Amino acid sequence: MQCFMCGTEVGDNKVCFNCGADILLYKQIIYTSYVFYNQGLEKARVKDISGAIEALKSSLQYYKYNTNARNLLGLCYYQVGDTVRAINEWVLSKNLQEDNNPFADRYLAEIESDPGLLNKLNSTIKKYNQAIEYCKNGSRDLATIQLKKVISQNPNLVKAHQLLGLLYIQEGKFADARKVLSAAAKIDANNTTTIRYIHEVKDRLKDQNTSRRRKKNDVVSFNDGNETIIMTEGSLRSMLDNTRTSLINIVLGIIVGLLICFFLILPTVKDNMKDGNTKTVLSLDETLEEARSENETLQEEIKALKGDLSAYDDKQDVATSYDNLLAAHNYSAAGDTKTACEYIQLVTKDVLGEEGKKAYDNLYTELSPAITQGYYDDGNSFYTEENYESAIINFKNVVDIDEDYNEGAALFLLGDCYRLTGEKEAAMDCFNKVVEKHPSNKWGRQAKVYLAADDTELSATEVGE
Amino acid sequence: MIDFEEEIKKYEPAIEVEQAEEDIKARDLTDLTDLLVNISAQNAQNNVAK
């Protein structure tokens, strides 16, 4: 082995005897670099590319001339789709060890042998970078489309898989995310980012499945008569909601119906009632008019019938009057003046003929004093009995026949009957006539007293004779 | 729970073919042996000076 400082052959010595450089330390550094290289190689073999890259980077930090480590690092980059980095590592490898570097030669030769490969890779990288920009700008749909294209062109680009998986997670497409991330894991088995995303997807899917299972388990069962009904809680709630909605609809329907009745039907009914009432009133008016006209007709008929009846009575009265006149004549001739007076008063003079009237007048003149005396006696009797109404009738008959009858006694008693029945004016008339015609007799003086006292309330006894 | 916005920030654009040369030039290829050489060289200079 040569000294790393002066180039002197040092063999197995720990220190260069020429320049004193620490050969042991130098060997340890190179040894450590190879240790890392071996680790990287082991990891790369088990497709732990990320781990391999880290180990190989460490190896090259110890000893940059570890060409195997650099070539392997390039290969790891190429494996995860980072082709430019891979080429860079191989180019550096070739520059650092131009000779006896078959791997770098081979890799670079393969790339150079396919002129379109670089363009294709470059296009893919540009699309990937554009997808990152889309994501940062919030255009996730465009980013997803771009990443799908990138993956189709460069299926090994793990970062594209990861980014697409992240987008799927964000959109809630966990199954798609799992698929993409599984593909990434197949390329780079131990990538921490991929593993983190896969865990996230698993957790989200687990939550989803739990909630679905919970939904499935939310079963409600109840008995309806002899039947047991089983339904999910969601269905039961939906059914109850529908029932509630139906009830609300029914109530609303009733309210709307009542409003329609109130605003549309009731006014019509009222109008009809008004029309009906008007018609009823009109018909009643008509009926009343008919009744009135009928009443008038009936009144006319009654009048006519009364006329007929009076004519019939007159006809009847004619015979009766003649009979009574004959009876009065016979009793007068027989000397029974009183009975004769009774019969002659039953005769109606107007229905008699000329001869009958003459006979009546003759007999009446003959019986007149007896008739007058009869009225007067009856009047006195009623007066004594204080039946002044009947007394008035009899005294009035006397006065009509002879006003001065019995020296004005009949007239005075008529006036006194009027006085006693409260007919003051009629009483005063009678008393005035008595005073006028018989001023000096007892009836005249008594009448004067009544007139002077102007007190018709006094009784005859109180006034004195 | 993954924060999408924070996660997106972690993604950096991949190196394009046109940027490959610059990337190589920008590389710091200094390794531990280089440091050891420098340290040893400084030590040798110090010894000569003494």
What does this structure look like?
The complex is a heterodimer of chains A (465) and B (50). By secondary structure, chain A is mainly α. Among the domains of chain A are: 23-113, Tetratricopeptide repeat domain (Serine Threonine Protein Phosphatase 5, Tetratricopeptide repeat); 135-215, Serine Threonine Protein Phosphatase 5, Tetratricopeptide repeat (Alpha Horseshoe); 355-463, Serine Threonine Protein Phosphatase 5, Tetratricopeptide repeat (Alpha Horseshoe). In chain A, 79% of the residues lie in helices and 3% in strands. Chain A has helices at 23-45, 49-62, 67-79, 83-96, 102-113, 115-137, 140-153, 158-171, 174-187, 192-217, 233-333, 337-345, 354-384, 388-401, 405-420, 424-437, 442-453, 460-463, and strands at 219-224, 227-232. A two-stranded antiparallel sheet of chain A has the order 1-2. The radius of gyration of chain A is 78 Å and the shape is rod-shaped. Chain B has one domain (15-49). The longest helix of chain B has 18 residues, at 32-49. The termini of chain B are far apart. Chain A binds chain B through residues 4-5, 19-22, 25-26, 29-30, 33, 60-65, 82, 84-85, 87-88, 91-92, 118, 121-122, 125-126, 128-129, 132, 135-136, 159, 163, 166, 169-170, 193, 196-197, 200, and chain B through 1-2, 4, 7-8, 10-20, 23-24, 27, 29-34, 36-37, 40-41, 43-44, 47.
Return the average pLDDT of chain A rounded to an integer: 86
- The largest sheet of chain A has its strands arranged as 1-2
Rounded Rg of chain A:
78 Å
CATH domain topology of the domain at 355-463 in chain A: Serine Threonine Protein Phosphatase 5, Tetratricopeptide repeat
List the main descriptive attributes of the protein structure presented here.
heterodimer, A: 465 residues, mainly alpha, Serine Threonine Protein Phosphatase 5, Tetratricopeptide repeat, 18 helices, B: mainly alpha, 0% strand, elongated
